[in-house]
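Researcher: Here's a chain I'd like modeled. Treat it as a single chain, no partners, no ligands.
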Amino acid sequence: MSINGPEELEGMRAAGGIVRQMLEAMKRAVRPGVTTAQLDEVGAEVMRGHGARSAPALVYGFPGVSCISVNDEAVHGIPGERTLREGDLVKLDVTIEKDGFMADAAVTVPVGEVADDLQHLVRCAERAFAKAMLVARAGFRVSEIGRMVEGEVKRSGFSVIRELGGHGIGRTIHEAPRVPNYADPEARQILTEGLVITVEPIIAAGSGRTFLAQDGWTVRTADRRPSAHYEHTLVITKGEPMLLTAA
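Model: Modeled as a single isolated chain. C-alpha cells:
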C-alpha cells in the first residue's frame, strides 16, 4: 500500500509496534529446551493483549500464530513440539493484522552458544538489510534493493535464497511490488514516497536452493545447510526509510 494521510500512517505504526513487541518477547524466551510451540504462544499472548490477529492464519490459514523455522528451515516453519537445542538458529517471523493494517518482521536468534560460522551468517543477513536501506528510497528502482542485498551476501561467502524475498504490505500480507534479494531486471518499479514494503534478506550458508517440506508450508534448504532471515516493514521516503517494526 501507499500511505495516504496521517490516519493510515498511525494505523501502520500501531501494527508495526505490536510486531516489535511480539518479537522482543519471543527473543527473550529463546533458550535450549523451549519448544517452538511455546515460543509461538509467547508471541500470541502479546498479540491478543493488543487485540491483533495472526495475519498468516487470517490470510492463508497457517496453522500457527507466527512462523518459526530452525536451522535449515528457511521460512514458514510450523510451531510445534520441536525442542530448541544449544547451537541452533531459530528464525522468528511475525506478521499481524490490527484494525485493517498489517506489518511483518523477522529476526534470527542463536540458541545459546553457536558456532562462529553461524554467527557470521546471522550478521550477514543484518548487514545486507542495512546495505539495502541505502537505496530503499524514493527514486530508486526495486531492483537496487536486491543488488545491494546480494552483493553483501556474496562478499560474505553466502547465498541468497532467490525464491524468497520482500513484498509490498499494508492491507494484506503480500502486495505489489515483489522485492527480490538479487538484481532482478524485471523489478523495474520506481520506489515512491509513502510506499510500504518489507525488505528481508533470506540467506543460506550453502547453495541457496530450497524445497517445500511434506507439511506443505516449511521451506528448507536443499543441501540442509543453515539459513538466516532478517526483516522489517518500512515506509519509503525521500531519505532514510521509516522502519515501522523497529524500536
